[in-house]
Amino acid sequence: MQKQFLIAPGPTPVPEEARLAMARELMHHRGPVFKRLFGEVRKQLQWLFETQEEVLTLTCSGTGAFEAAIINFTRREDTLIAIGGGKFGERWGKIAGAYGMKVVTLDIPWGQTAKPEALRDLLAAHPECAMVTLSASETSTGTYHPVEELAAVVRAHGRALFAVDGITAVGVHRLPMDAWGIDVLVSGSQKAFGIPPGLGFVAANARAWERYESSNHPKYYFDLGRERTNHVQNQTAFTPAISLVVALHEVMKLMQTEGLEALIERHRLNACAAQAGVQALGCRLYPEVASYSTTAAVVPEGVDAQQVVRAMRDRYGVTIAGGQDHLASSVFRIGHIGFIDRSDMLIAISALEFALRDAGAKIEIGAGLRAVQNVYAQPVGQ
């Protein structure tokens, strides 16, 4: 028998408390029990998003939630600036283009961070811009962008809304929506929340809701105004994924018990351990600034990353992720997002050692594990 370990950037492992909650008898979504539970979930999400605004829970993927954000808070004739630098940052521009909007891309080489001065210059060239989109933690490259600094640039522009994809950043990095002036913040259930895919979250501030009133994109299921009207009554506009909402309630309790600072610190520490482990094995970190959610690393010369990913899964029972698009043969990605702990990182790096060796890399077995252990052996706070 081969044990299986899910240590990918998403979906992520589901805690036992959530699995047991989803096994309960189904409740009716218009009944009083669900309304009470959903009312608690609404407050829990505000705590995690660090906002006083309503955080809408949609039955969809994170991509669906971001599409909803675009079409509810812009107009068809608007200009949208999409900050690129990876598969997901580029995706939001493609969505806007599908709705006929004028899309201007801030082109960034994959793995590099968005520079505030470059965004400032692009906004100056496009004063009509109505929205700037950003993937805070670009999962395809393992890059974390300077969200606070970019938010300040957008706010100084005056007109544009700042819409942030926090799908692998909320619950991983501090993203205080209200304090940083983020107008729209989006996330998804299968990442830091540690429950199965199927829920998307959208929080929007007063500036964004003002734009909603004049939005002229076609929408029905993704009409966030209708959804907000129902949310304040502890209801959803349409039938929700009831079992996922119940599971969300449980994992949010786990997060609140751990505490926000401790939650972020655990992600930071696991990221440091993974980064130390892969570098000790001769792999190079791909991003300029690494996210706490994902370690993206370049394999040693002559090694096929796809072979490494397959060996870890099929031979050693550890599922990580490969590089995307043109990075498929050179990059692998280890997830340390959600309910991941030290033992998961030790298992991942141990399997990586053997998979790299099997793929022909000249490595010292145990070097990666020692590096991981050294990170965890440091006094707390260092």
How does this model look, in words?
The structure is a single chain. The protein contains 14 helices and 15 strands. By secondary structure, it is α/β, with parallel strands linked by helices. Helix 7 links the parallel strand 8 (161-165) and strand 9 (184-188). Helix 1 packs antiparallel against helix 10, helix 11 packs parallel to helix 13 and helix 11 packs antiparallel against helix 14. The model has no long low-confidence stretch (mean pLDDT 97).
Q: Kindly report the CATH topology of the largest domain.
A: Aspartate Aminotransferase, domain 2
Strand content: 15-25%
Q: Could you name the CATH class of the largest domain?
A: Alpha Beta
**End-to-end CA span:** 39 Å
The structural class is alpha/beta
In percent, how helical is the residue content? 40-55%
Gyration radius (Cα, Å) is 21 Å
Low-confidence stretches: none
Query: What is the makeup of the main sheet?
Result: 7 strands, mixed
Q: What does the overall shape look like?
A: globular
- For the biggest β-sheet, the strand order reads 2-10-9-8-5-3-4
